[in-house]
Amino acid sequence: MLPIVAVIGRPNVGKSALVNRLSGEQDAIVFDEPGITRDRTYRPAFWQDREFQIVDTGGLVFDDDTEFLPYIREQAQAALSEAIAAIFVVDGKLGLTAGDEEIASWLRTQNVPTVLVVNKCESENQGLAQAAEFWNLGLGEPFPISAIHGNGTGEMLEELIKHIPPVDEIEQEEEIRVAIIGRPNVGKSSLLNALTGESRAIVSPVSGTTRDAIDMVVRRGETTYRLIDTAGVRRKKNVDYGAEFFGINRAFKAIKRADVVLFVIDILDGVTEQDLKLAGRIIEEGRAAVIVANKWDAVEKDSHTIYEYQKMLDDRLFFMDWAERIFVSAMTGKRVDNILDLVDRAAEGHRKRVSTSVINEVIEEAVKWHSPPTSRQGKQGRIYYGTQVTVKPPSIALFVNDPKRLDDGYRRYMEKQFRQQLGFKGTPLRLFWRGKR
Ligand code: GDP
């Protein structure tokens, strides 16, 4: 995944023209309206040795009474939250507007480096004069450009790439962050040893984000896995006071940092209350997960055994039915090699992005099979449209006439439809039901 640059600005300032210019595509300019139904499309772009993706967020307005106003803001926020930098486009012909000021003050709270670009400055002589008043926005130097003709874009890109790492550094960041989580004695350290055993290509300890956290990096094929806080996994129990308490806080922190959690349970104990607590946390944090049922070697088996244990997991972890599971022995190494395949799949589901048009096809189809419930007053629930607002975990906003009319049963039905039609294996999926405002 290349770093993302978000293009922000009021409608009609020329955001899509700029996106076209920077991505070298000269296709028709998309009608620039407040950004509700339009897909966020990611276009590849580069300058010198930097590569990035550029995304147009749709026209941003703060002062309008459009019913989707909060959503527009949310979508811009979502775009910005995954962006490494932002380009804020203003209209040099029109001059500084109140709308620009609102966007600027919002941007200043966002902690994303911003390049201020004054578009429609066709004449290079007058450009600087046109741009000057935008110093007032407090976002640093305004760069006069013409998205249509291309003048000035070199200077602004020069500024932009200061915030973008060179390609070879980015590849290092392409890794799946994995946390090994479980109660004491379920076999986490044994599993860590098995996963990082001699047969692996490269294992190297790297420092984690907190002072005493040590991560380990494992490579397999093209993929890098960062095993989070392996020091915490190995920490010996019953040493200090409050070791258990320390353990769970550490586990919570590791979950927070992970993309995928290896949720280790001791199959001899089944799923305990403490396990449920950890599972709940994984879901709360929106992490992908693989359920690793360990110590399978110690189970006496006949031909039915696996089904009985499957059933037990189904029952106890019904709220995590999206997670794939695997029965392993960290001790003998049985099936340990397959764990990373499941991690790959879960990571893929976790970062999966589906276009608005596909989401709406699924909704349309689902509603045809099974229409939303009608209240006793005869009012029926209606879904106007949906769109995926973010990834990790995938989150879909559904715009409806009245969220109260779409009961839990129908919400579960919808989630099931999304999963059946679109995948999302191994990851929680969040649906936000939004009424008209
Ligand atoms: P941790 O506290 O979760 O890190 O658990 P450890 O890795 O220290 O393992 C706890 C105990 O379970 C140790 O005595 C291990 O030898 C044992 N153990 C771990 N994995 C397995 C396994 O796959 N099968 C069996 N039979 N024992 C295991």
UniProtKB/TrEMBL annotation:
GO BP annotations, alphabetical order: ribosome biogenesis
UniProt xrefs under InterPro entries: G_ENGA (IPR031166), GTP-bd (IPR006073), GTPase_Der (IPR016484), KH_dom-like (IPR032859), KH_dom-like_a/b (IPR015946), P-loop_NTPase (IPR027417), Small_GTP-bd (IPR005225)
Coiled coil: none
Residues binding GTP 1, per UniProt: 9-16, 56-60, 119-122
Domain EngA-type G: 3-168, 176-351
Superkingdom per UniProt: Bacteria
CDD domains recorded: EngA1, EngA2
Residue positions binding GTP 2: 182-189, 229-233, 294-297
GO molecular function annotations of the record: GTP binding; ribosome binding
Keyword Cell membrane: no
Keywords in alphabetical order: GTP-binding, Nucleotide-binding, Repeat, Ribosome biogenesis
Complex formation: Associates with the 50S ribosomal subunit.
Role this protein plays: GTPase that plays an essential role in the late steps of ribosome biogenesis.
Family statement drawn from the similarity comment of this UniProt entry: Belongs to the TRAFAC class TrmE-Era-EngA-EngB-Septin-like GTPase superfamily. EngA (Der) GTPase family.
Name of the protein described by the UniProt record: GTPase Der
Lineage of source species: Bacteria, Bacillati, Cyanobacteriota, Cyanophyceae, Oscillatoriophycideae
